[in-house]
């Protein structure tokens, strides 16, 4: 790495990026990302990396702190790779997370929010984490250092629940002889420490409302012990009640047990064999017999099955979000409602853009503060199918004579309705174009005087195709300015 470049001119931090770094500008206008800074900070920094469109810097001196700057509680903050925002007041963290969600949805999905991002804060900004993994190496215990695989030794962690923090202190006094990764859990005053490589089958249970959910060591489970019941309540409320529900990435059944009470039939899909075993055990213990559990990758299961049309789909995917083939199959199900829980605003926004292309309308966006003191963001989104789309038609990269009909059905990538009458029109230019997520066509804003019931799609630089539909939302038509155009 080249030598650091010292910057004499003060840098003012104006915002926070999705990864947690503060954002400012150098004297030449270049955007610079600075870890451990807060909005309002005036800093003297050194640039440690320059790229074509941005730079990365490190704080040399805080000339004037921003109002939201706080004193970290952890002695190894900045060295440990666990927390990145202990220097930031909790209310400022919440505001930053809401802004990151809004920016991602607007910038990546091209959608306007249905209202403000609803914030559900953790009851406490510290002492909330009821599950964690630590490393034991050579008689020491701790987490990994920031941007490193090396151990950062600790004996206490302020974000852990008091019971779990006491267990960590006990382990630090006399660590187990065996090195490796250990999982620590607490619930209802109980604690457990398990070396993952040796006890992967052991289950630990926690009560979530009326349900008891058990999970094996090493299997994914939500870690905020203070907010987990609220999270479940909000997911269940978003899903509502009905006949059939499809749950994707269901894990050990944190949501499944409650959903099974509210729906006649639940089909639950999960790829982890250990999580599926836990889920089946949890269902047996709860006496639930209206849940069909399917083990396999979501995209593969949806491609090989033809499930009945569900009233609602609930999904909680990992950070990469939905695979392209999975989202194709998802929209083909034509569910009336989709409840999407995401841990990454960028991949969520990408998927929302595609779902919007297929006629789903954003109804509610909520930030659930599962990870205070970190920039990790959990977002709960509810979408509803626009009824107009079920009777709409879209021309995908093909033209037809005026008054003609498409000779082929719509491709599977956009399977919402049979073809209807289309007509080709000429327009002088195509302002505001953007690439369609579900076809090779390019969306454009309608001309100033479009015919009633038509949406415009470009097929060449000076040509567009108008697609006939009843008034309402048309699949694959999304104006960049408003995010959800309506036909005249």
What's the short version?
The protein is 19% helix and 31% strand. The chain has 488 residues and is α+β, with helices and mostly antiparallel strands. The protein has an eight-stranded mixed beta sheet, with helices on both faces. Strands 2-3-4-6-5 form a five-stranded mixed β-barrel. A five-stranded antiparallel beta sheet has the order 10-9-8-11-12, with helices on one face.
Q: Please, how many helices?
A: 8
Tell me, what's the shape? globular
Within CATH, the superfamily of the largest domain carries the name Vaccinia Virus protein VP39
| Separation, N- and C-terminal Cα atoms | 57 Å
CATH architecture grouping of the largest domain: 3-Layer(aba) Sandwich
Taking the sheet with the most strands, its summary is:
8 strands, mixed
Q: What is the number of independent domains? A: 3
Low-confidence stretches: 390-488
Could you give the topology of this structure?
Elements: E1 5-6, E2 11-16, E3 22-25, E4 31-34, E5 42-50, E6 54-64, H1 90-109, E7 118-120, E8 131-137, E9 140-144, E10 151-153, H2 162-173, E11 180-187, E12 190-195, E13 203-208, E14 211-216, H3 228-239, E15 242-248, H4 256-262, E16 263-270, H5 273-286, E17 291-295, H6 298-304, E18 312-315, H7 324-332, E19 337-342, H8 345-357, E20 360-368, E21 378-385, E22 422-426, E23 434-435, E24 442-443, E25 454-460, E26 463-468
Parallel strand pairs: 4-6, 7-20, 15-16, 15-18, 16-17, 18-19
Antiparallel strand pairs: 1-5, 2-3, 2-5, 3-4, 5-6, 8-9, 8-11, 9-10, 11-12, 13-14, 19-21, 20-21, 22-26, 23-24, 24-25, 25-26
Helix pairs in contact: 1-8, 6-7
